[in-house]
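Predict the holo structure. Ligand: 4'-deoxy-4'-aminopyridoxal-5'-phosphate.
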Amino acid sequence: AKGSLAGGISSSSRLTSTGPHPYPLYMSSGSGARIRDVDGNEYIDYLISYGSAILGHAHPSLTAGLTEVLTRGTMFGTCNVPEVELAELITDMVPCAELVRFANSGSEAVQGAVRAARGHTGRTKILKFEGHYHGWSDTLAVSNRPDETEAGPYGAPRAVPHSPGIPAGVVDDVVVCPWNDPEALHAVLDAHRGEFAAVICEPIVANNACVMPLPGYLERLREAATAHGAVLIFDEVCTGFRTGPGGAQSLFGVRPDIAVYSKALGGGLPIAAFAGVREVMETLASGRVKHGGTYNASPLCATSALITLTALADPAVTRRIEEAGLRIAEAIRRAAHDHRIPCAVQGVGAMFQAVFTPDGAPVHRYRDTFRIHRRRYNTLRHELLRRGVHCNAYGLACWFVPAVVTGDELAQTCEAIDGAFAA
Ligand code: PMP
């Protein structure tokens, strides 16, 4: 919106946050892979509601199914059928899932998984990794990026500030360890022998430059967690049902004890789950570990998830997502090469990020993310918006590819990418 706020929306908004850079975009409608803003501009969408609307916007099956639930009534507080069917589908799709518990958001589901691990082991300490994001809860929102703490100064009152020179440290009951570094992992585990309830990670670091695990690293993590009697938790909020029907654990062939899901699970509505091996999850069933929530797996959200997962259970759907993403990633690589701008595209087809490192080399370790030119990514995003392509505003998070993006839309996206790099 030139010179004025989008659609005349007042700047005296009562919201406590502002829109993303470079200017607020107010969206008014969406259909398939496309969204429209209040000024009538259209964009092909690779943010898709932070990765949630994996089947695209206003998917006809979801619209019909959800309208039906709303018309019938959204009663909960007793057992509900979609919740049970959804749990069965998740246990069919996810290798580690023997028992499932639902929540409303990824943050809550992570907390539930951590509680289950603590209840199971009788220990309290959690090992997490530098730059991995597990939601906004006070304990796990620990960042050791000196310029940001996800919990904020009041959210984590006992947080000890870290610096890149001091890679690992203890904050509350959380020990932060460098990622993709087996020696550091063993040093941290040995220093806290017998103390960890859980080791938690994002198998693909979706919230920090889409860093991939180095070959063999997840296997070593699995072995180390077992050897130390800690519950291994994969936070699959981003990778779950996106990188294939079985998520990252199928992609890499490494089975955690518990996996956490949200985003793609709900197809755009708020629902989350943690699912894992019976032995650990039974701490919840026995009531030894408490977890609850009024809206957990409400019939509306459980129906949305059921419709979405039924579609994603077909491997052809996630294969299509992967192939579409690889095409875009290749277009970025080619444009960066042609226009001589150092840039690496990392991740997988279904979720990836363009990172502007000084030499164009990919990033494997957290400390290398400090070398990423984030303003350059913002410029790319701005130029893409001008050409009708919408992606994440935050240069360290990732692009999420919708299942419904068409061949024409992909061609348009590739052309926009070339134009944006040229500009
Ligand atoms: N874990 C990961 C890997 C995430 O990406 C997110 C959200 N970006 C969360 C947890 C938290 O989920 P929510 O925002 O639904 O609380």
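Residues 61-312 form a domain with the Aspartate Aminotransferase; domain 2 fold (CATH 3.40.640.10). Residues 105-107, 110, 133-135, 202, 206-207, 235, 237-238, 262 surround 4'-deoxy-4'-aminopyridoxal-5'-phosphate (CB under 6 Å).
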